[in-house]
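Bug: token stream looks shifted between consecutive jobs. Job 1:
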Amino acid sequence: MCPAYIPFSTSPCRIPPGLPPPKSFTSRSHPLVDMDVVPFKFLEAQIADLLDSTSLSSAKGLTKGLAIFIGCETSSESKHPYLDGVKKDLELLRSTFSSLGFDTVELHDPSKEEIQKVIAMTKGKLYQKAVHFYNSIVVTFSGHGDQTKLFSKNGSLSLMDEIVNPLISEHPLVPKIFFVDACRGDKKDLGVTYSLPSRQDRIRARGEREEINLPQNGNYLLAYSTLTGMKSFENECGSYWIQVLTEELLCNNGKSILDLLTMVNQKLILKFNELHLTLQQPIHVSCLNQVLIFQCIDAKG
């Protein structure tokens, strides 16, 4: 990500309101952990507790989801500046996904090895195909990146080989969602002006079968904050993309995750136009095999 010089809004930093979950459905959120202060083995124990739970509470018959937030303010590359907005990103994500009923785990400026350990622990639980495991897994990354790599404080990781592929190869019934907020190059999008085309009808196809073979590496979604080779921006309130994404998640009125991400793209482009910023085009790749809808939990039950 790259700092931007024009505020996203003139109002104070927006922190989504925390909607308290009902008593029968308690979201467990591990506090923000500074890896330089708290030993990783402490956080590792917390994660193991979440993954090993075999009696997860449920709301309306649904097992809750697990969200893993990776925030890397510093990079092993000296050319990368410190990212002040990453902490704000983690706060927004924690508040949002807790309101959606997820258990959450936060990695604050972790090392490469610590990220790999958390992914391996999650993969191991998926491999066991536990009946009482989470109904979905969300992994987010906020930090520096390039076209193929993400950067931690002591090294780089391959997004696909070290984060995505280890998880999507296990338990295809559990959808895995990846949100990546990082630069993918050094180019800037100055935009091109076009007249808006007329609206076209969408064609929907639906098929139903009692049994179906599932692809081994399917049922996942990968969302990037920007296109390959392009910059991703933040301001004093955190990432522009994360701000719009969390707002849409909290205000979702029954939209599927794919429709929601399309709205995120539209709102982000409109906001950048309002502020006369160079543009940022998010992109998502979906191999989901089911409609996925995130909704806030009604505190009244």
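Job 2, same session, no restart:
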Amino acid sequence: MRSWLINVGCRHEDGWVEIVVLLVAESPRTGAFRKQLDKLRNTYSRFASRATIFIAAFRQGEGPIRSDLPFVVANNGSAVADAYGVRDDFNILIIGKDGNVDYQTRKVLPAARISDVIQNSFVVQHEVRR
């Protein structure tokens, strides 16, 4: 189901190495997708320090993603949406280093909420306690 993440460097055969923030939308012009990009503006250093990869999966269409965060665009966005059961126009998923979906919603999230979910994930907390 999530084998496509191996191809973008998020997962190695021996385990997960990156936190993934996956944005699923109909197209780059979807209103909620654009609002989410606005919420993430100027937050690159916060997420880069946590080895976070941003991936966009579009059901239809392509196009540039205007953001100061680097995005990987999934090759088959509709298959990615189906793999995670996304039926809405927009979803954001936070996938932890263990490969589990830590959070999924169809609502636009503030950058601070995304950061909180990442910080409070099981694997990150385990690493902090070592």
